[in-house]
Write a structure and sequence with these properties.
185 residues, alpha/beta, Nucleotidyltransferase, domain 5, 48% helix, magnesium
Length: 185
């Protein structure tokens, strides 16, 4: 499975591509940051993020895009920018028919380090170790994007089994021939 991880941000949007399957060594195919100038208008910044993510999608052709789920923070302005960048990433993937998965920061930290409260240094160190890199990717947004991709690759088999079990447990909502009453006038 090839996954593009996106750590959304209006100034720095981390992107990283990881390939592999759960239980096997993973390979980093690319890592970077889509940057926008802080003094540019929000619309221009979102277009720049869209162009950057589209370029990553063109180059790496991921099967899935994993995006960090936006969570509430005290700084509303930061949350809004993060949410807008997140929406752009989801739009770029969805426009191409690429599935999108959302993971919370604590889910990613727990998957990568074993603790949902790990700090950025711990996440960077584990990403470096898991992908057999010489040094942690810089800035931290890039390492976080790789962590998102790794998290999804590791969690995907369990999530798929859970979705299948939930679907099997729900009664079908599509009427069958036997359950449709014939209406005559």
């Amino acid at each position: 499975m090839r996954v593009l991880g996106v750590d959304p941000g209006l100034t720095r949007c981390g992107v990283g591509v990881v390939e592999g399957v759960a239980g096997r060594p993973l390979a980093m195919l690319g890592v970077g940051v889509v940057r926008t100038p802080a003094d540019a208008e929000t619309g221009q910044r979102l277009v720049a993020i869209e162009q950057g993510i589209d370029a990553w999608l063109d180059e790496h052709r991921p099967e899935l895009v994993a995006v960090e789920r936006v969570f509430a923070q005290h700084n509303v302005r930061t949350v809004m920018g993060t949410a807008q960048a997140s929406a752009v990433a989801m739009l770029c993937a969805s426009r191409r028919g690429i599935p999108v998965a959302l993971h919370t920061p604590s889910e990613v930290k727990a998957a990568i380090t074993g603790s949902g409260r790990a700090d950025k240094t711990q996440v960077g160190a584990m990403v470096t170790r898991l992908l057999r890199l010489d040094a942690p990717p810089k800035p931290a947004d890039a390492a976080d994007a790789l962590a998102l991709a790794i998290c999804h690759i590791w969690r995907a088999p369990a999530l798929n089994r859970l979705q299948q079990a939930q679907a099997a447990a729900r009664p079908s909502r599509i009427p069958t021939t036997a359950s449709v009453r014939k209406v005559t006038r």
